[in-house]
């Protein structure tokens, strides 16, 4: 997480408390990590030629966070299915 979702302060690292507004960031950081794990799982499943499972894992990732990598991976899968 680069910025606090409440006050938009820049965060130097994944710290559990915002240094500016003191918001507890533990839950959003946990959600962000879960989204990253689902996206990584999707990549592994795609590499193992398990397309259906890869799409399912990717959608779980995107439900948690609309990450640019996950969005690009979804577009890649859509385009590859057209060919």
Account of the protein in words:
The protein is mainly α. It has one domain. It has 3 helices and no strands. The chain has helices spanning 26-47, 51-64, 68-82. It is elongated, with a radius of gyration of 15 Å.
Short summary:
The chain is an all-alpha fold and 83 residues long. The chain has helices at 26-47, 51-64, 68-82.
What attributes characterize this protein structure?
mainly alpha
Roughly what fraction of the amino acids lie in strands? Answer: under 5%
Radius of gyration, in angstroms, nearest whole number:
15 Å
Task: Count the beta strands.
Answer: 0
Tell me the number of helical segments per DSSP (H or I, 4 or more residues long): 3
Straight-line distance between termini: 36 Å
Characterize the biggest β-sheet: none
The overall pLDDT average reads 95
Into which percent range does the helicity of residues fall?
55-70%
Rough outline: elongated
Question: Helix and strand succession?
Answer: HHH
The low-confidence parts are none
Label the structural class. Answer: mainly alpha
Number of domain units: 1
Task: Detail the topology: elements first, then pairings.
Blueprint: H1 26-47, H2 51-64, H3 68-82
């Amino acid at each position: 997480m680069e910025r606090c979702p409440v006050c938009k302060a820049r965060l130097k690292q994944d710290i559990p408390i915002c240094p500016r507004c003191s918001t507890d960031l533990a839950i959003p950081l946990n959600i962000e990590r879960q989204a990253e794990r689902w996206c990584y799982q999707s990549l592994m499943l795609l590499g193992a030629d398990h397309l259906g499972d890869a799409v399912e894992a990717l959608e779980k990732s995107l439900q948690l966070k609309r990450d640019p990598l996950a969005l690009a991976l979804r577009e890649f899968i859509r385009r590859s299915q057209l060919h």
